[in-house]
Every structure is written in C-alpha cells, then in structure tokens.
Amino acid sequence: MTTKDVGRAARRGPYAKSEERRRTILDAAHEVFAAHGYRGGSLQDVADKVGLSQTSLLHYFPSKRDLLMAVLERRDEITGDAFPDDMEEGLVDSVIRTALFNENIPGVVELYTVLCAESVTDSHPGRVYFTERFERLRKSYARRFAELAAQGRLRSDVDPDVAAMSLVALWDGLQTQWLLAPDEVDVVKGLRGYFDLVVLPEPSPDP
Amino acid sequence: MTTKDVGRAARRGPYAKSEERRRTILDAAHEVFAAHGYRGGSLQDVADKVGLSQTSLLHYFPSKRDLLMAVLERRDEITGDAFPDDMEEGLVDSVIRTALFNENIPGVVELYTVLCAESVTDSHPGRVYFTERFERLRKSYARRFAELAAQGRLRSDVDPDVAAMSLVALWDGLQTQWLLAPDEVDVVKGLRGYFDLVVLPEPSPDP
DNA sequence: GTCTATATCAGGATAGAC
DNA sequence: GTCTATCCTGATATAGAC
C-alpha cells in the first residue's frame, strides 16, 4: 500500500522516517547532555553526532529546551520510571533489579545525576520534572513500605515515609559516588545493606 | 606601627585590604555558582555583585577556573569539611550537628550539590576535588564506624565500609531532595533514622 | 588596582534558498 | 527537510590607559 492509495484523509510524507530521525536525535542528545550537562552541552554537539546541521536539528525540536524535555520523557520510557505500581514484584526485588540494570547503562545514570543537580539552580527547565519525580517516587515507595509494614515485614520502629525518602536519597547518592569511583562504590551492595536493615525476612509459618 | 617603620623586608601596599577584597569576591562567587552552577554562572554576575568590573575581578583571580577552586577551598574552611578526626565528639553527634547547621546555610548546600553533580561531567575543574572528597569522607566515616563496632555499638551484621559509603550517599541525596522540596524533606530526620538502624545505644552497665 | 575598549569565540535562533 | 548565511547575544580573556 502506497501513500497514493490511502485517500484524502491519509497523512502525507515519510512520517515513519521522520520519527526514526527524532529517536536518533534523542539518543545523541542524551549522550551530550549526560556528558556535559544541559548548559554545557550544545546543539552543535548533538548535530555533529547525528550528522546534521545545527539548524536542521532545530527543525525537529524547535528549541534546546524542547530537546531536553523530550530527552527526559524518553528516559522515563527507557527506565520504566513512570513506575507502574500494579506490578506483582516486591519492592526489594524491583529496586535491586533496576539497580543491576543501571550498572549497564552508566550514560543514563549520568544524565539523571547531572541534570537532577543542575535543575536545582535557578529557572532550570528540568526543575519541575525532578521535583515531581521525587514527589511521585517518595509517595510510591512510602506506599510499598507501608504494605510491608502491614505484613509485619518492616522493622517496627521504621516510619514508611522516612524509609521512602531515605531509599530515594541513598540510591541517588550511591549513583553519584559510583560515577566518580566505579571501582570503589557498589550501588547494589549499598541498597541491599539498607534493605537488610529495614525489611524483615518472610515470617516462617507457624509450627 | 606603619609600613615605613618596618624596614626593607616589609611587604608594601595595602595587603590587608586586598585580602578582604578577595574574601568579598569569594562570597559573591559562592552565591553565583550556587545559584547557577559553574557553567551557568558568569564572571560578570560575580563582578556585579561585588561592584567591580569583570576585568578587575580577573585581577584577583586570573581565571574563572581559579575562582572556582578558591571557592571550593573556602567552602572547606566554612564547613570544617577538612574534617579533623581528632575531635572528641562522637560520629552521630558530629553528623547531626553539622546537618542542623546546614539547614541555616542553604546556599552552601546548594553550591555543594550543584557542583558535585556538575563535576561528574567531562573535564570539569571540580572533578578532582569531589572525587578526593568522597574518598576521604568514606575512609573517615569507615574508621568511625569501625570504632563503634569495636565498642559493640554497631549492629553486628553491618559492614563499616558499607555504612560509611551509605551515610555519605544518604546525606547527599537527602540534601538534594531538601533543596527541591524543603517543606517535605527533613535531612536530620533521615540521618537520625539511619543511625537508629545501625548504631546501638550505649550498653547499660553490668548489674 | 581599576577601568574602557576590544579581541575572540561560541551559543541559540531566524530567514530564506534549494 | 536540509542547507548556508546571518543575527544577536553573551561569555572569557587580553591590552593598555589612568
């Protein structure tokens, strides 16, 4: 079926190819922003990577800011960060699995770490994204910890809200140290250590 | 005693005034880098704050990079981060006290958080500073936790090295969240929660 | 020590030809 | 959709007068 066959309601032009190009650009932008941050990375860098002129790049994303937002959205897709709470997997397994996965994609971790802190500065385009992300994540983890508490599997003197906040903080902090000293810092080890402290093992069945 | 009285070996010129000016500049630079990061903050911003032309500023610090390094060194002085291990104060008290103090100087926390993550990017002038800082801090805390362990005051299944790495990570991560949501995140609460998990109370004397 | 003037460069974004 | 050419802005840094 060619374009001509479709009739008047059809989309014209090589839409699929354009979408692919957009993805290519996003990958390149991802790399550039991860390596140099938002302010430090230039549109020219991205354009060079994808073999396009800087102006052609702006044909796909009308501004640098738009490009960043698209990169952040894409990050959510890659990492599944827009976190479906309905999964059957337990909190501990889910976190550890993701942390293990992240070891293979340091670029994604770097992007996240750099942009997160950069967004703390004045009027950064990513600020809303990270603020909302933290809020969502804290809520989500707090609910998970509360579930564990209901099952008697959370150490009794642990507040689920504090645990949620701390888990997010610990994870991010470990990743930062890992990026600066990958041979000395083990993110998964640190997370396991924390879970061992707050999560009790499954209760053994009554004899 | 005036300069004339000192004889030929004396320093000439208003040395003290110059030193004061340098401190003023460092304070301004601190604010600017905290608010906009190293790349985002400009020498002009700093110059404006201190009421000097941009070129005059470069008279005191020959390059932007030099200015940043001086700001980081000054940060160590302010926070006492070059951590004298010889203090009598216990690890827990020391950390909590510093965290409480930090609540009053969000600018310093912001500078630290922003520059730390920015330094993860390629060839950032602050990279060495933060890498070394983390290494030093992990070592220092690990020794403190080991001391606690020797006193039987560390939970037995906790590795001092993991605890040190985790404490640093947790602290930094909490500060980041606090900067983005100061009303919802309590750094001290998070740290206390962690210490409650790993540090045991002083053993009661034998009956 | 402080300034003006300027060199030099790079960034993002627009206009318009093809 | 892609390019060249260009605009505009703002950055660091230097030269040299006062």
Structure description:
By secondary structure, chain A is mainly α. Chain A folds into 2 domains: 1-79, Arc Repressor Mutant, subunit A, CATH 1.10.10.60; 80-207, Tetracycline Repressor, domain 2. Chain A contains 9 helices and no strands. Chain A has helices spanning 15-40, 43-50, 54-60, 64-79, 91-102, 106-118, 127-150, 160-180, 187-198. The longest helix of chain A has 26 residues, at 15-40. Chain A is elongated and about 70 Å long. The model of chain A is unreliable at 1-9 (pLDDT under 50). At the A-B interface, helix 1, helix 6, helix 7, helix 8 and helix 9 of A face helix 1, helix 6, helix 7, helix 8 and helix 9 of B.
Brief write-up:
The first copy, chain A, has 207 residues and is an all-alpha fold. The first copy, chain A, is built from nine helices and no strands.
Count of β-strands of chain A: 0
* Oligomer state of the chains in this structure: homodimer
CATH architecture designation of the largest domain in chain A? Orthogonal Bundle
Alpha-carbon Rg of chain A, integer? 21 Å
Instruction: Find the structural class of chain A using helix and strand composition.
Output: mainly alpha
In helices, the fraction of residues of chain A equals 55-70%
Number of helices of chain A: 9
Tell me the CATH topology of the largest domain in chain A.
Tetracycline Repressor, domain 2
Task: Report the principal-axis shape of chain A.
Answer: elongated
The first-to-last residue Cα distance of chain A is 68 Å
Mean pLDDT of chain A: 91
| Low-pLDDT residue intervals, each spanning 5 or more residues of chain A | 1-9
User: How many structural units, i.e. domains of chain A?
Assistant: 2
